[in-house]
Design brief:
2 domains, 6 helices, two-stranded antiparallel sheet, 139 residues, alpha+beta
């Protein structure tokens, strides 16, 4: 795949940088989130090995505490220049509460949901980021 980047290594949407992009050899543009999605497993003939339902089940693997923390800090990067000190303090207090999460957990763990709901219901409302609205972790 050929990588092309707009602006300073970020895709442009309404004149704002929203994240790195990659353009595949077939011309399809992929966001960072799309680049890291697992492809649908296919047989040698190109047929899907799993239905869309099967794909959904594959994507329901547990989160790891380390991966969740890394993702949350990555998401924070979209707000760090526009968030108030109060929003920053609240975000990192909720992130600190996630240190009590088990090493592997499913979506719905209270500490993780507490942080994700703050991102969705406060930060994304105060500082809209269309790119983050596409994130599967925030759905």
């Amino acid at each position: 795949m050929e990588k092309r980047e707009g602006g300073h290594g970020h895709q442009k949407e309404s004149g704002k940088a929203v994240g790195p992009t990659e353009i595949r050899s077939d011309g399809q543009k992929l966001s960072v989130l799309q680049q890291h999605q697992r492809p649908i497993p296919r047989s040698k003939r190109g047929k899907r090995l799993f239905s869309d339902f099967g794909r959904a089940k594959l994507e329901q693997v547990p989160y790891t505490k380390k991966g969740f923390n890394n993702t949350a800090q990555h998401v924070w990067g979209y707000f760090k220049k526009v968030a108030t000190q109060e929003e920053k303090d609240e975000f990192f207090e909720r992130l600190e509460n996630c240190s009590s999460l088990p090493d592997e957990f499913d979506k719905g763990e209270p500490a993780a949901e507490h942080l994700l709901s703050y991102i969705k219901e406060t930060l994304l409302i105060s500082h809209p980021k269309p790119y983050l609205n596409q994130s599967s972790i925030l759905k």
